[in-house]
TrEMBL record:
Matching CDD domains: p23_NUDC_like
Organism of derivation: Cristinia sonorae
GO terms under cellular component: cytoplasm
Disordered, as annotated region: 1-32
Tagged with keyword Cytoplasm: yes
Predominant cellular place of this UniProt entry's protein: cytoplasm
Protein name: Nuclear movement protein nudC
Alphabetized GO MF terms: unfolded protein binding
One GO-annotated biological process of the protein: protein folding
Length: 192
C-alpha cells in the first residue's frame, strides 16, 4: 500500500496533524541547508550567506545549465551540486548583496514545474502542498482569463453536482430545439 493510500484513509484531523508534522520536518531540513531558497513556477531564487565583508573577487560562483556551486576562492564550496532541473543560463544571474549574501536567480527551462529541491542531493519538499501565490485574474489577457474563469466555474459546478458550462449549452440547445419542434417526442432522449 502506498503512502498516498494511507493518507487517503486518514480523518481530516489526522491529515492536518500529519501535514503539520511534515511541514515541521521539511522546515527543519530546509533550515539546516547552507542557503535559503524560494520559487515561483518559472524561477527559483537562492540566498547564500557568506562571511561579512566578502567581495565579489573573493567568490567562486559556478552557474551552469545543470549545476551550481558557490563558495570562497580556495575553499570548499558552501553549496554545490547538480540542480534539480535545467536552467536558462542567459537569464540566470548572481549578485553579492551588502558584502554578506550571494543572491542567485535561476530561470527554469520548464516553467510549469515546481522544484522539490535546488540541489538533487539535498532534502526535498512536498511540491503537491505548494500554495501558489494567487495571480489576479485581472492580470491575465482576455482569452486566458475567460478560459480560467470557465474552468473555475465548471469545477465549482462539478463539486456541487451541477452541469458544467458545456453541458448547460447542450441542454439549452436541446430546449430551444424542443420548443421549435413540439411535434417530436423527447421523453426518451439521452444527453451525451
Amino acid at each position: 500500500m502506498s503512502a498516498q493510500d494511507d493518507y487517503d484513509k486518514l480523518t481530516k484531523e489526522e491529515r492536518e496533524a500529519r501535514d503539520a508534522a511534515d511541514r515541521k520536518r521539511e522546515a527543519e531540513e530546509q533550515g539546516a541547508l547552507p542557503y535559503k531558497w524560494s520559487q515561483v513556477l518559472g524561477e527559483a531564487d537562492v540566498v547564500v550567506p557568506v562571511p561579512a565583508g566578502t567581495r565579489s573577487r573573493d567568490l567562486a560562483v559556478a552557474l551552469k545549465k545543470k549545476s551550481l556551486s558557490v563558495g570562497l576562492k580556495g575553499k570548499e564550496p558552501i553549496m554545490g551540486g547538480d540542480l534539480f532541473a535545467d536552467i536558462k543560463l542567459d537569464d540566470s544571474t548572481w549578485t553579492l548583496e551588502d558584502q554578506k549574501e550571494v543572491h542567485i536567480h535561476l530561470e527554469k527551462v520548464n516553467k510549469q514545474q515546481w522544484w522539490p529541491h535546488i540541489l538533487t542531493h539535498h532534502p526535498k519538499i512536498d511540491t503537491t502542498k505548494i500554495q501558489p501565490e494567487n495571480s489576479k485574474l485581472s492580470d491575465l489577457d482576455g482569452e486566458t482569463r475567460g478560459m480560467v474563469e470557465k474552468m473555475m466555474f465548471d469545477n465549482q459546478q462539478k463539486q456541487m453536482g451541477k452541469p458544467t458550462s458545456d453541458e448547460m449549452k447542450k441542454m439549452e440547445a436541446l430546449r430551444k430545439f424542443q420548443e421549435a419542434h413540439p411535434e417530436l417526442d423527447f421523453s426518451n432522449a439521452k444527453m451525451s
